[in-house]
Every structure is written in C-alpha cells, then in structure tokens.
Design brief:
374 residues, alpha/beta, Phosphatidylinositol Transfer Protein Sec14p, two-stranded antiparallel sheet, 16 helices, 53% helix, 9% strand, CRAL-TRIO domain-containing protein, CRAL-TRIO_dom, CRAL/TRIO_N_dom
Length: 374
C-alpha cells in the first residue's frame, strides 16, 4: 500500500473526498461535544492534543483515511473508532511511553531480540522481525510486553517514507515451543493494530511454521479481520522469502547477510540529552504553544474547506498549514519523544534532537535539515 493506491491521499475519488470531509466534520463535532470547545479551539482540548500528537509528522488526512479504508468508508464507524483511539491513547498513557522511550519499557526484554526492525521489503515497506522463540510466557509481566508492543508500533511510524504507508511483519516460528505461545500477548498485538493503528499492515509473512501448532493458528486466525487474513502468507523456503524481501537486508537468522539484531542501549550522550531536554520546561512550553497555534491554524483553514470553499487559494493555504504543522511538531519532538536504538545505528535520522540540545547547552542556533527517516 502506498499513498498512490486508490483511496489513499494521492488517489481520491470524489466519493472518497466527500467521505473524508464528512469524517473531519463529525470528528471535530465529536471532540467538541466531549470537551465543550468549538471549531479550531479543540486544539486546546485533551482529545484535540491526542489527535495531533497521533498525527505526528504525517499529513492529518492520511491518518483519517486509514480509518475510512479500514471501516470500508463508513463515516460514522470511522468517527467512533477515532474517538475510541484518542481515549485509549489518553487512558493508556501513550504520550508518557513516547516521552520516556526505551526508559519506559524493559531494556532486558528489548535485548532478547524478540522484535526489531531491519531493512525494507521489495515494495519499500519497513520490515518488522518477530521471533516468538525469544518470548517465554511469564518471563516478563504482561504490562511490560504490552508497553514494548505499543512502543514498537509507534517507532515503526518513523520508519515510513512517503509514499509508503504500511509495514511488513515476519513471524519466524522456528524453534517455537508451547512455552512460547502467549495468546494474551498475541491478542493484544492484534487488537492494538486493528483498532488503534488501522490499515498499517502490508504483509504478514509466517516463516518456519511448525504444523503441530495448526490448532493454535486457527484460533489466532479467528481474531484477525478478513482484510488482515488476506495479507498472511506462509513462507517455507529462503527462495520464497527472497521474492518479497531482498535477503541481503535481513539478519543471518532469517537467511540474510546482516548481523543478527543486538540492542544498543542509550549512551551517556543520550542520557545527558534526555535529562537536559526534560529539565527545559520553558522550552517545552514554548514548543507546545507553537504546536497548538499550528493546529488551530490548520483547523481554521480545514473548516473553511469543509464548508465548501475549494478555491485554489484555500487548497494552497491548507497545504501550507500542513507544512507549518509538521514543522511545529518537529520542534516539539525532542520534548515529547526520545532517540532510540534506530537513531543510534543511523536508521532514523532526526537532527532536531541534536539541534535542540546544542541550542540549550551551547546556545547554538544553527539550522539543520528537516527530519528524514531511513
């Protein structure tokens, strides 16, 4: 799936655009009813904040379209599920996990190598490698594993490069035993991706599947939506896998040539940066205010568009507002998220962290390139 496919941002029919508009209208109204704030002022509400934190670096329309596609263009269902997601993010503390990054999850669990990202498939999608063999049921509390799941899903979003909008997952079932089959964790992963990060899966490749687990697979399959079931492929050989992914980008344990995953924990520099930025409450307040202003501006222009104003100037202004929103989020990012293993190995390049830190510590106002990933 890319942004050029039908129903995606670069390929919308009139019916798709109308559904997008109706969803925006209903979503703004739903947040207004929950918060008693109207129109662009929902930027100051807890759910307005959650919405645009969830948008992150994305085009807001891209996020809304994910729900529309996953809910088969049912506007009311999409609005309800978006609101449910915003409440889940708030109640579950997604912002807190992102603010603390790898400090919010068990680094011992990350180090097991049970899940990580490495390379891209032939369609350009980031590849998430999952090795159930490295997960022993009960070794870590469910809360730890659930936080790691959410953290990984949020991390993969920074690996997406337009027009790519989805990820490919490899489930390597090699060496898997009964002790590794954690149905609670499997169901949590399925629920989170389906309900709160919809239409984010490109393919699910099941490798080295032991058919003694066939009954287990039938249970798991019943939890998958029909659209996700169609994306599951059982891979039996390296040749089959190479049809989807160039093996040279994969680790040796997956028939590749890359070194197997080894987690690199936060460095002393990472910790110094984290502590300095978290102590900079004034800088955070300024960045938050600028982001809220950008959200209000985006919503103000979007509301004009929703009310039927589709002249060229409005469309250009909305595009400009979207870029301003992205820039404001970039400036806010060092205060609400952290560098990760993927920053340390050069997979994710987010120079704003170093820029903000240098400015804070050394008074360095040097401009850096905008964020780029992979």
């Amino acid at each position: 799936m890319t942004s050029n496919n039908p129903g995606h941002i670069n390929n919308l029919s009139r019916a798709h655009t109308n559904a997008l508009k109706q969803t925006w209208i209903g979503l703004i109204d739903a947040i207004s009813k929950e918060t008693s704030l109207q129109g662009k002022q929902i930027a100051d509400s807890v759910y307005g904040d959650e919405l645009f934190r969830a948008v992150g670096y994305d085009n807001p329309d891209v996020l809304v379209l994910r729900w529309l596609r996953s809910r088969k263009w049912n506007v009311n269902a999409s609005i309800n599920h978006i609101m449910e997601t915003l409440k889940w993010r708030h109640d579950w503390g997604v912002a807190e996990i992102l603010a603390n990054g790898e400090r919010a999850v068990s680094q011992e669990e990350i180090s097991t190598g049970k899940t990580y990202f490495m390379g891209r498939d032939r369609a350009g999608r980031p590849v998430c490698c999952i090795h159930p063999k490295e997960h022993i049921k009960g070794q870590f509390p469910h809360e730890f594993s659930e936080k790691l799941t959410v953290f990984c899903v949020e991390t993969y979003r920074k690996l997406l490069q337009p027009p790519i909008e989805a990820v490919t997952i490899i489930f390597d079932m090699g060496g898997c035993e009964t002790k590794n089959m954690d149905f609670h964790q499997i169901k949590f992963l399925i629920t989170v991706i389906d309900k709160y990060y919809p239409d984010s899966l490109g393919l699910i490749l099941v490798l080295n599947f032991p058919w003694i687990f066939n009954k287990s697979w039938m249970l798991v399959k019943s939890w998958l939506s029909p659209s996700v079931q169609k994306k599951v492929r059982f891979i039996r050989t390296a040749e089959e896998l190479s049809e989807v992914i160039d093996l040279s980008v994969l680790p040796k344990r997956l028939f590749g040539t890359q070194p197997d995953f080894k987690f690199i924990p936060p460095t002393a520099e990472d910790e110094a940066m984290f502590n300095a930025l978290r102590a900079d409450t004034k800088g955070k307040a300024i960045a938050e205010a600028a982001h809220r202003d950008a959200v209000r501006n985006y919503l103000s222009i979007t509301i004009q568009w929703l009310n039927g104003n589709e002249n060229r100037n409005i469309l250009l202004e909305r595009k400009k507002a979207r870029k301003q929103l992205r820039h404001a989020f970039e400036q806010l990012s060092p205060y609400i998220s952290t560098r990760t293993h993927y920053h340390r190995v050069g997979v994710i390049k987010e120079p704003i962290f170093q820029v903000a830190y240098d400015k804070l510590v050394h008074g360095n106002d040097k401009e850096e390139p905008s964020v780029t990933f992979f």
